[in-house]
Amino acid sequence: MTTATATATATNKIMTENLKAFLDAKVAQYNRPEFIENDPVTIPHMFSQKQDIEIMGFWAATLAWGQRVTIIKKCKELIALMDGAPYDFIINHEEPDLKRLLKFKHRTFNDVDTLYFIAFFRQHYERFGSLEDAFLPPGPQKREHGLAVEHALNSFRSYFFSLPDFPHRTKKHVSSPSQKSTCKRLNMFLRWMVRKDDNGVDFGIWSRIKPADLICPLDLHVDRVSRKLNLINRKQTDWQTAVELTQRLREFDPNDPVKYDFALFGLGIEERWGVQF
Predict the structure, then answer these.
(1) CA neighbor of 43 nearest in space, from 32, 33, 55
(2) Are 51 and 203 in contact, with CB atoms under 8 Å apart?
(3) Residue 242 to residue 185: CA distance in whole angstroms
(4) Residues 6+ apart with CB under 8 A from 1
(5) Collapsing DSSP states into helix, strand and coil, what is residue 106?
(6) Residue ranges of E strands in the chain
(7) C-alpha dihedral sign at 162, 163, 169, 170
(8) Which residues pair with residue 106 across a beta bridge?
(9) Looking at residue 125, what DSSP letter applies?
(10) CB burial class (10 A; 0-12, 13-18, 19+) of residue 138?
(11) With CB atoms 3.0 to 4.6 Å apart as the test, which of 46, 202, 204, 223 could cross-link to 196 if both were Cys?
(12) Residue 208, SS3 per DSSP
């Protein structure tokens, strides 16, 4: 190794260590109970029963576009329409009970989508005790980082739309890596369900999907901050970009790379990093 190469290697190591220390500090700043109230994750935190947490976590993640205040308001409206008990309503409702849901709408998510979500949840929970089973593809599991979740999300979308006569319009609300999507909402939902720590934001109620396998949720804010920090080189923003970002984050913590979502999202939303004024 030449002197120049050794110097460059040492410099890169120092830069990596400094960036890790910076991001770790930001994770500590934003991964706190105070984060919950103003974020869509507050919706599943309204419940203690596992199935309620899963159902409203999935729904809150699905509806998570637009202003956070509006997202939270619409989710609470949906909960009220299900008598404050989503799992019980989904399992035990009768046909007339669905009429009240015909008025629910959030942006492009409408009553047709709502009724299909309820139909899917009902058929799933009649067979399984947890929504985690929907994210566990049949056959041998791919254990390589990234591929495990990629395979799971592709399989989940096929399973989600396996009911007869599913509405084609609803497919736009459930993405997959095979569509080249970043799958931001699904990855965020998986983070909520899978990550385990003592800080109270993420639930950690699933055990068969591992935190090390998760992919970082990549939205406009995280993408902008990640590029500013040179964590992303890929020009377009798609599934492979989310994988590239997560691979970089694994350099900082291979067992829990997605905890850095707190740092990147906080820097983008709360501190407005990279926003042009």
Answers:
(1) 55
(2) no
(3) 12
(4) 9
(5) strand
(6) none
(7) negative
(8) 109
(9) H
(10) exposed
(11) 204
(12) coil
